[in-house]
Design goal:
mainly alpha; 0% strand; Transcriptional regulator; DNA-binding; Cro/C1-type_HTH; Lambda_DNA-bd_dom_sf
Length: 66
């Protein structure tokens, strides 16, 4: 699985730390870190919560188009 640089960039745009985002979506900071590193594939429900927290779409963060 590739690193999720889109997630890291979207989080940074809002000046949120991994812990801030984790608190917003009710997971641990380690979970957010693992998603960004590409070590963890989040559930669709978690993906949706992350997108809502960052005000982006699923396609913006998780679609690996060409």
């Amino acid at each position: 699985m590739a690193k999720n640089l889109k997630l890291k960039a979207a989080r940074a745009r809002l000046d949120l730390s991994q812990q801030n985002l984790a608190d917003m979506v009710d997971v641990t900071r380690q979970t957010i870190s693992a998603i960004e590193r590409g070590d963890y594939n989040p559930t669709i429900n978690l993906c949706i919560r992350i997108c809502k927290a960052l005000n982006v779409t699923l396609n913006d963060l998780f679609w690996e188009g060409k």
